Amino acid sequence: MLAMNTKRKALSILEILIAVGMAGIVITTAFGTIGNVFFTQKKVRVSQDFHGEARFLMERVVQIARNNTIDYDRFYETFSENCGGIYPEQFFEDVGGGELRNLGGLTATGDVDPCTRAWDEDTDTTPLTTLYLINGSRTLRTALRKNNDTIEIQTQLAVDTDEDGKADFWSESPLWNDGGSGICEINTGTKYPVLGDFESLDFCQKAHDWVRISPHKITIDEIHFEPSPNRDPFLAFAIDSAQIHPHVFIVMKASLSNPEEFGLEADEIPNIILQTSASSRVFGDTRQ
Predict the structure, then answer these.
(1) Burial class (CB in 10 A: 0-12, 13-18, 19+), 83
(2) Residue 45 located in a structural domain
(3) Is the pLDDT of residue 6 over 60?
(4) Taking the mean position of all CA atoms in its chain, how far away is CA 91?
(5) Quick check: pTM over 0.85?
């Protein structure tokens, strides 16, 4: 019987080191690729979430604008110059014989009365960063504004202190009197029930001071409003340019807050510019 000679083959240390090194490169590359894919997916999710939140915020602002109409009185109180008085009073003049009537936004000589303008039309040089709105029954008014890098909302209820059927005092902090009467009141020195559904606690709780509505992950870099027309179309019936349905054009620019928390570089920060027009769903003369 012939004996078989067997030779044991073994890997050299050099070969083992080369194999280990190549395996390390492959594993490192694989983990790096997986890490890059994971981080890229994370950035995509962050960007998608940001854009979704920004669009939802814009839709909320639009819905508020649609469900109300422009509050010309409050714009006038804020932006009028050298006219004074109450906004509707600017439309009524003494035309002789003790007669006081609305000239439709014109003076007695037929010129356009500048005091019937609730705000300046040139919003390109002085953009409006606060939007004033009022509901159809003129019992609740709302304001939206940019405050630093946020959007805030304030809501007020009204009372009629002189009993002429019209709101003459507004407050963001009415009180619910649950001591037997169960009504919503505003204290002006004397307590008056609010106009509207004064027996509803839910209605009473609609009023509040400025609160933030923009998400904390969103920085509002810019928002401005272009309401139109700049005169109440029902009071200014003699001015053709005012004879359009109240609407507001909204432009909002936003970016992601605290991008470093998501590992984003300066050139990777997601941002968005949104613009839209919201037409009021309140129809007819709300002053009647």
Answers:
(1) middle
(2) yes
(3) no
(4) 31
(5) no
